[in-house]
């Protein structure tokens, strides 16, 4: 079983496919869920600790907007943990957008920089394309087991 980072990082569709092939999807939803359920966090709705902004600085310089650093404090460690990645490009905003193109660009850069197997696929425009995408994902995930 490999840990597979998915992008967009909150895409439930990609997470489901990764799980169906016996791998662990790394996605921001899980990281946010852990924070929301963490009893140490006493500042709802902020749900941050003193350490979270420091974590974000590892991935984004102080000059970038705080929202980017905040998102990267969650996404960056997932990329660090990943053993592979699936990146869907040109997906519509409703497919799993994390709300910030700067974060998206930084996320894709960190994925490219890390030496791990990466599947880059285009968002399907019709049913036939969707079947091809699922097949490519299946082949990629099966190849990780070898």
TrEMBL record:
Domain of life: Archaea
Pfam families, alphabetized: DUF2112 (PF09885)
NCBIfam families: methan_mark_5
Name by which UniProt lists this protein: Methanogenesis marker protein 5
């Amino acid at each position: 079983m490999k840990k597979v980072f998915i992008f967009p990082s909150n895409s439930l569709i990609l997470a489901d496919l990764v799980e169906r092939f016996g791998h662990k999807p790394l996605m921001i939803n899980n990281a946010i869920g852990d924070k929301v359920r963490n009893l140490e966090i006493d500042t709802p709705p902020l749900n941050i600790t003193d350490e979270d902004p420091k974590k974000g600085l590892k991935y984004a310089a102080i000059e970038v907007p705080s929202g980017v650093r905040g998102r990267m404090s969650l996404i960056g460690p997932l990329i660090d943990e990943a053993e592979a990645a699936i990146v869907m490009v040109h997906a519509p905003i409703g497919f799993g957008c994390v709300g910030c193109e700067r974060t998206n660009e930084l996320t894709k850069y960190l994925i490219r920089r890390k030496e791990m197997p990466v599947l880059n696929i285009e968002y399907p425009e019709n049913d036939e394309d969707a079947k091809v995408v699922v097949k490519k994902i299946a082949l990629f995930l099966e190849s990780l087991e070898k």
